[in-house]
Amino acid sequence: MKNILVTGGAGFIGSNFIHYLFSEKSFTGRVVNVDKLTYAGNPENLDGISDRFADRYVFEQADICDRESMAALFERYEIDTVCHFAAESHVDRSIADPDAFIMTNIMGTYGLLETVRRFNASRAIHFHHVSTDEVYGSLGNAGFFTEETPYRPNSPYSASKASSDHLVRAYGETYGLSVTTSNCSNNYGPYQFPEKLIPLIIENALNEKPLPVYGDGRNIRDWLFVADHCRAIYLIMNQGKRGGMYAIGGRCEMENIQVVTAICDLLDEINPCRSGKKRRDLITFVKDRPGHDRRYAIDFSKLHNELGWEPQESFETGIRKTILWYLDHPAWVDRVKSGEYRSWMNQQYGE
Ligand code: NAD
Ligand code: DAU
Fold first, then answer.
1. CATH superfamily, domain at 3-192+222-253+295-313
2. Model confidence over 292-325: pLDDT tens digits?
3. Which ligand 2 atom sits closest to the C-alpha of 293?
4. Cβ(6) to ligand 1 under 6 A?
5. How are beta strands 220-222 and 253-255 bridged, if at all?
6. pLDDT tens digits for range 154-201
7. How far apart (Å, rounded) are the C-alpha atoms in residues 185 and 309?
8. What ligand has the least distance to the C-alpha of 38?
9. If 0-12 CB within 10 Å is exposed, 13-18 middle and 19+ buried, where does residue 255 land?
């Protein structure tokens, strides 16, 4: 890991991962962050990094689908490791318009793999693919997703990620590329774009706006604090079995309505409404998401047994840190909520 290319490093998890890398003593290499800066990418997420690590950090604005630009980066920076986050990541957007998902998540990953294959002839390159538990579809009331669970994606987003997972695996098998893949459950924490459930609810609750809960609010997600995910990725990249796939989860199943009420109660404690209102009164049940997966839950025994990983943050501590981060960063929120985001919310809720 001398020269690591992080794709999508200006997004939520990618930027947390870069912060993590520079806090990790065993990492002494250079990071090249390549990001197209879509609505979800924000170079501000890396504030401080370029000053503090000027000789070890570079930002390059480019599209992973642009193969010439990718090849130029591999050449110029002698890339030996790739950690691939760049993707269209929001399920609701994929339902409204799948185009960008097919392009970036499938064609973009394919292009990157081709570039790795080309440069791998002269220097060994490791490719880590960051994927999702959504590729497995939906669980019933019992059971867990593991690395053995058959793929059954239900949304254009998850189908595009499943496709990219298959390409990564196939390039490992066919061309002998050194690859690893991780399939993680729902993340939350600093720098998450406020279209996703947790930051959306925090922001709306702070502004005393309706809190939209899809369907009956009883869909279950397995929540993981983002720093725990970053630590797992770093471990897998360094010590994971080549060709290996690793499921990552928080051992933290919660119904959406439990998540929303937990945020309401914590905000009432930390920052009570001036009007004296209780935030729970803002909860509004809205039309369900089409094809809405009912339950996700991960059994991460493989990662635990092979590499000793387990989450360090509980939901109680993680959600408090997250709420405090959003309270401390109103300017960040205002900026990311301007422009393209506003038109999307208009479309969704007629704001
Ligand atoms: P995000 O939407 O916050 O960030 C995605 C980043 O990719 C943005 O900075 C965006 O500008 C960039 N990007 C998009 N298209 C690009 C392109 N064509 N070329 C270059 N850059 C491009 O997403 P996230 O939540 O940080 O997710 C990162 C990765 O982790 C994704 O691959 C996602 O599937 C996966 N994942 C996310 C979660 C989660 O809960 N958020 C859980 C498991 C896996
Ligand atoms: O499981 C991993 C996945 O988690 C990642 O691969 C995706 O990139 C990430 O976006 C996330 O997908 P979800 O669809 O689970 O996340 P989202 O925050 O959109 O929704 C979480 C749950 O909350 C889901 O059951 C839908 C519900 N929801 C969401 C929104 C935005 C609501 O009830 N109301 C809302 O307004």
1. NAD(P)-binding Rossmann-like Domain (3.40.50.720)
2. 999 999 999 999 999 999 999 999 999 999 999 9
3. 25
4. no
5. antiparallel
6. 999 999 999 999 999 999 999 999 999 999 999 999 999 999 999 999
7. 15
8. 1
9. middle
Ligand 2: which atom is nearest the Cα of residue 214? 33
CB 10 less than 6 A from any atom of ligand 1 = yes
| DSSP string of 53-87, one letter each residue | TTTTEEEEE--TT-HHHHHHHHHHHT--EEEE--S
For ligand 1, atom 15, name the residue with the nearest CA: 87
Q: Is ligand 2 within 6 A of the CB of residue 93?
A: no
Mean pLDDT of the region 54-78: 97
For tokens 């909520």, name the residue: 337
Q: How far apart are CA 239 and CA 260, in angstroms?
A: 37
Question: Tell me: the pLDDT tens digits for 37-52?
Answer: 999 999 999 999 989 9
Q: Residue 275: its pLDDT value, please?
A: 87
Long-range contacts of 59-62 (CB under 8 A, 24+ apart): 59/9, 59/10, 59/33, 59/35, 60/32, 60/33, 60/34, 60/35, 61/34, 61/35, 61/36, 61/37, 62/34, 62/35, 62/36
Determine the pLDDT at residue 50: 87
| Per-domain boundaries in the chain | 3-192+222-253+295-313
